[in-house]
């Protein structure tokens, strides 16, 4: 038998080693309105080959579509699909409105089909269970209870294996919805906030340092020693006004912008005073300016700034939609933070919600962050000034219209979506359903929050401390010069060598000696 070879009714008949027929060539027929029609051939080597051109097939599908009423399943999720008010007095497609309802209206206008929208029975988008069973809208599509799914249905690899998707009509990613921080409770010691602790400590040290140096230099320079009785210049008793107490009083007086009766006379002490006044001028102006900003800003910084912050803490709960692609994203992620977040969410299933609306309500109650798709977040934050998006997108994906596997309608619907995109209709619809007068409602608050305040730290005012230090060094040098100059002018019998006099004076300063002494006679 294997060697037999003849031409029969089905073409050439011959067999291979295993007795299977080879060289089989089949005609592909299609049932059309006018009956069976050959549309191509099939053989083992080349596979299926269609003789009908692609355009003709497409035309054919379009023709079929025109006479059909498609069953469309959807889910209530603003602004994609919503119930029109009063819903109980409306019926059929009129009950629904929203972005997706408008899109299907536009597509049906292009392709000419009729449609009937119904809501998914179990209120779920569709996830695969451990047993491989689908739920939600995907289930209805597989069971042929619907011809299309039109909703905020994310295109995922897992779903693509069970159903077909058209090209995406919207792009998005997962992000975090969180409540804006509450108003700050006024702090009793908020006057300390404009400067950082470090700067306060540096300022206190500068105050001590400058006061002590002023005291020392005033002792060293002979020009601060003046007759104790202004009316009796010849009494011979010299006095120094910069006692330790007076030095501290002088510096605090200028720091508080008040001044004192004590006034420096020598160049060196005047240099110190000038540097200190300049320092206090800058510091007090910076403090006042920052204090004003601190008192105006009433909002706290958000405790979380992204998914990593969420993963790293345990006081704020977080969750996502129960039967959706967001949950699958975390379940299957290999990124450390997201894996950690999945473990936390899984351990506490109450964090999952049955709808996005439920998630938003939980966020508004506080201490809960909701992982939601960015376009839905945008819609919610546009309408509620208390809500905000935290951080950027965790992934990037799109919403598509799902059709049963192998559905001929996928290509014409994809083409229609492309046309809507190119004509700018998708953009107009997005504007129509998303935009609100947020600026008007939340404007004032937004403005307040956009001013950021932070305490001034050493990086902001460090330069002033450097200038002050340089000024103090300069004053020390002048003071020594003044001392040498004046000592040299004393009569030789009255004084020891300059260096000895200098050492004696330093010792006197260190031991806080008397602030008056009898004047020595000048050589002039
Ligand atoms: N759009 C999602 C979905 O298709 C819903 C979600 O998980 O946030 O499942």
From TrEMBL:
Alphabetical list of Pfam families matching this protein: Lig_chan, Lig_chan-Glu_bd
Limits of the Ionotropic glutamate receptor C-terminal domain: 69-436
Signal peptide (from-to): none
Membrane topology: Multi-pass membrane protein
Segments forming a coiled coil: none
TM region(s), chain numbering: 199-218, 275-295, 461-485
InterPro entries hit by this protein: Glu/Gly-bd, Iono_Glu_rcpt_met, Ionotropic_Glu_rcpt, Iontro_rcpt_C, Peripla_BP_I
Keyword Hydrolase attributed: no
Listed SUPFAM superfamilies: Periplasmic binding protein-like I, Periplasmic binding protein-like II, Voltage-gated potassium channels
Main location: membrane
Domain Ionotropic glutamate receptor L-glutamate and glycine-binding: 79-143
Subcellular location field: Cell membrane
Keywords for this protein: Cell membrane, Glycoprotein, Ion channel, Ion transport, Ligand-gated ion channel, Membrane, Receptor, Transmembrane, Transmembrane helix, Transport
Family recorded in the similarity comment: Belongs to the glutamate-gated ion channel (TC 1.A.10.1) family.
Protein name: Glutamate receptor ionotropic, kainate 2-like isoform X1
Lineage: Eukaryota, Metazoa, Ecdysozoa, Arthropoda, Chelicerata
């Amino acid at each position: 038998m294997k060697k037999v070879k003849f031409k029969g009714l089905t073409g050439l008949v011959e067999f291979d080693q295993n007795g299977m027929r080879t060289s089989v060539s089949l005609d592909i027929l299609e049932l059309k309105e006018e009956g069976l029609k050959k549309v191509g051939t099939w053989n083992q080597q080349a596979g299926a080959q269609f003789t009908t051109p692609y355009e003709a097939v497409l035309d054919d599908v379009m023709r079929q579509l025109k006479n059909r009423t498609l069953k469309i399943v959807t889910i209530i999720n603003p602004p994609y699909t919503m119930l029109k008010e009063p819903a109980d007095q409306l019926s059929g497609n009129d009950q629904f409105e929203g972005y997706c309802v408008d899109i299907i209206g536009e597509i049906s206008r292009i392709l000419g089909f009729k449609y009937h929208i119904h809501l998914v029975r179990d209120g779920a988008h569709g996830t695969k269970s451990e047993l491989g069973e689908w739920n939600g809208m995907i289930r209805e599509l597989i069971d042929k209870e619907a011809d299309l799914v039109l909703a905020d249905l994310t295109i995922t690899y897992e779903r693509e294996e069970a159903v077909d998707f058209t090209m995406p009509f919207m792009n998005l990613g997962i992000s975090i919805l969180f409540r804006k921080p509450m108003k700050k409770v006024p702090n009793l010691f908020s006057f300390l906030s404009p400067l950082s602790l470090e700067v306060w400590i540096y300022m206190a040290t500068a105050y001590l340092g400058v006061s002590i140096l002023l005291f020392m230099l005033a002792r060293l320079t002979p020009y601060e020693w003046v007759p104790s009785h202004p009316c009796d210049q010849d009494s011979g008793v010299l006095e120094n006004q910069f006692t330790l107490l007076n030095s501290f009083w002088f510096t605090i007086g200028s720091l508080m912008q008040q001044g004192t009766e004590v006034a420096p006379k020598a160049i060196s002490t005047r240099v110190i005073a000038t540097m200190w006044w300049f320092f206090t001028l800058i510091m007090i102006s910076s403090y006042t300016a920052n204090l004003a900003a601190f008192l105006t800003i009433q909002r706290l910084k958000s405790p979380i700034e992204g998914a990593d912050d969420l993963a790293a803490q345990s006081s704020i709960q977080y969750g996502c939609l129960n039967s959706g692609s967001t949950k699958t994203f975390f379940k299957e992620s290999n990124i450390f933070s997201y894996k950690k977040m999945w473990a936390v969410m899984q351990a506490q299933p109450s964090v999952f919600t049955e709808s996005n609306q439920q998630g938003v309500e939980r966020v508004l109650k506080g201490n809960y962050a909701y992982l939601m798709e960015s376009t839905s977040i945008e819609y919610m934050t546009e309408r509620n000034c208390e809500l905000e998006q935290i951080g950027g997108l965790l992934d990037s994906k799109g919403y598509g219209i799902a059709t049963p596997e192998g559905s001929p309608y996928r290509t014409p619907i994809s083409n229609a979506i492309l046309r809507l995109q190119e004509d700018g209709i998708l953009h107009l619809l997005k504007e129509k359903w998303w935009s609100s007068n947020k600026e008007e409602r939340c404007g004032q608050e937004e403005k307040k929050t956009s001013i950021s305040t932070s305490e001034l730290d050493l990086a902001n005012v460090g330069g002033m401390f450097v200038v002050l230090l340089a000024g103090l060094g300069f004053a020390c040098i002048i003071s020594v010069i003044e001392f040498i100059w004046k000592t040299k002018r004393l009569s030789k019998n009255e004084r020891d060598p300059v260096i000895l006099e200098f050492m004696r004076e330093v010792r006197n300063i260190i031991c806080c000696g008397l602030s008056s002494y009898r004047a020595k006679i000048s050589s002039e």
